[in-house]
């Protein structure tokens, strides 16, 4: 594929960045003029505990203190033929 001309490069940048610009503008408009709050991840537990839970959910079984036992999944409870 031959290199793009400067005009084609500018057009490509405009086409790729326009949806990002529109989406960001819409979110900022809702916050500034409609009073919508910023979305945040709830932080009810300590960060260490949240990290440990997320890692164990992924099935790696590694917690803050080393290797932990894998929690049984609902699929493990079903009778297998």
Automatic annotation (TrEMBL):
Keyword Transmembrane helix present in the record's keywords: the answer is: yes
Keywords assigned: Membrane, Transmembrane, Transmembrane helix
The biased composition feature labelled Basic and acidic residues covers: 67-81
Give the stretches traversing the membrane: 12-29
Give the source's domain of life in one word.
Eukaryota
Spell out the residue ranges making up region: Disordered.
61-81
> Which protein are we looking at?
Uncharacterized protein
Source organism (scientific name): Naganishia liquefaciens
